[in-house]
Amino acid sequence: MPVYNTPQKLAAEFLGTFALVFFGAGAICTDRFLQTNGSGPVGIALATGIAVAVMSMAFGHVSGAHFNPAITIGYWITRRVNTIEAAGYWAAQLLGGIAAAFVLKAILPRDEAWQPVRGGVPDLVRDFTRLPAIGLEALITFFLVLVFFATTSEDNIESRSLSGIAVGLVYAVGILIAGPFTGGALNPARAFGPALASSYWANHGVYWVGPMVGGFLAGLIYDSLYGRKPL
Questions:
Q1: pTM for this structure?
Q2: Which domains, and CATH codes, for the chain?
Q3: Which of 44, 129, 180, 228 is 20 to 30 Å from 202 by CA-CA measure?
Q4: Which residues, at least 6 apart from 189, have a Cβ–Cβ distance to it below 8 Å?
Q5: How far apart are alpha carbons 188 and 90 in whole angstroms?
Q6: What does the pLDDT look like over 90-146, one tens digit per residue?
Q7: Under a CB-based contact definition with an 8 Å cutoff, are residues 123 and 28 in contact?
Q8: In angstroms, how far apart are the furthest CA atoms of the chain?
């Protein structure tokens, strides 16, 4: 089995996160462009979930296919990666999200698709406050990261080939639940790229605090329940 170097791993994280944001945010822009003929929340959820599943199967053997700072923080707190490795993954993921958002901004019709939804940047529905929003993003991300840990475990070889599909399905179901209320980012990189490209930062902290707390707790709880010893 080949051993991949750090630049190769970071490139995989960049490309995977790029795809997640490009297809996820792009589906929101496309739905807005088509208006009543769009695929709606189901199509947006499937676009993100399928993108994650495909890219995870493509690059899981290279970098582990985190594509999400919340997964990486779970790996960091359980000492599966060190601080320098985690920082590199976070940088690659954020850059992937930024690049995808600016590519969408450059190629999509500005007035009909991009601007009305600010490039797919997540935001809170009216009268849905920040604390419940943080809780919702945290809870769904918790299960997302928990499934990632369980299906990529060294002791669960049988599930590794299906890990990408499982994680993609959690993304899809999570977006169906959270999308109408928070936009269903479940990933700080998914929120940060479009926010930067559209210069729209309303409630942006929700999409860092919620997913990162969820990922942090999922890593700790998985290890405490299933007994993996730190490296």
A1: 0.94
A2: 6-226 (1.20.1080.10)
A3: 44
A4: 17, 20, 21, 67, 68, 69, 93, 94, 96, 97
A5: 10
A6: 999 999 999 999 999 999 999 999 999 999 999 999 999 999 999 999 999 999 999
A7: no
A8: 53
